[in-house]
Sequence to fold (282 residues):
Amino acid sequence: MRRHPNWLKIKIGGGESYVRMKSLLRNGKLHTICEEAKCPNIAECFGSGTAVFLILGDICTRNCRYCYVKHGKPTPLNLDEPGDVAESVKKLGLKYAVITSVTRDDLDDGGANVFYETIREIKKLNKNCNIEVLIPDFKGKIESLKKIIDANPDVINHNIEVVKELFQEIRPQGNYEISLRILKDIKKINKDVKTKSGFMVGLGESKEQILNTMKDLRRANVDFLTIGQYLQPSRNHVVISKYYTPEEFDQLKKIALDLGFKHVESGPLVRSSYHAEKVLCL
Ligand code: SF4
Fold:
């Protein structure tokens, strides 16, 4: 494990909002990707009443080499989960809710129905809340994607996570082309849905590979992009190959905007839902 450079200052959690959020999540027996994936922005986001709800349990059927989420045999579905998430969104007074999930390759629909129910329940209880879903690849199943679009979320996000050349090594059960196709299909099914994707740097990619990934995402009609620094969550995860400086992240942002992305968040601590609500006015 390498010592982080001084521009990577990670805040420690605390304060009234942070404690309230933690207690609400425990009482509702809910999970967040913020906690499960050891997100470096948890103090800032929980402190401002923002969280990314993790549905379909907290055990993933895949095992990406950078990811801290538990993997193995998932627990049975919690049928109360959509209603519980909607109640929590209401209690927190969220104007922008982000819902994501572990990957559930064990389910025929990959969990699309639970996403659907969760979006519908949130809308029922929270008339003015915008919803972003960060979805898995559903193994490319178009029926699952249609189900998500039917529920009418405001933004659909699917992270490509790494450049094409590293995909097989870092995400062995995933597929770069399937992920791109999922993103492209969203606009084909409904051109009005806003689409988003993101990737990490610092895993051994070259600048040219980054550029090609951005171009692929633009060809898939992705509207919004996030770029962040990979941080090794434990000794058992893939080692960081490079720390990008804030200036390099600024350069990547400029390149992405020049390629036509409508909004880009690029920085050492940027994660896919960081400042997610900023895209609302676009
Ligand atoms: S599919 Fe997603 S949650 Fe599962 S291991 Fe990979 S990054 Fe983590």
Observations:
- The domain at 16-276 is CATH 3.20.20.70 (TIM Barrel).
- The chain has one domain: 16-276.
- Strands lie at 31-32, 52-55, 59-60, 70-71, 96-101, 130-134, 155-157, 194-201, 224-229, 263-267.
- Residues 232 and 239 are 6 Å apart (CA to CA).
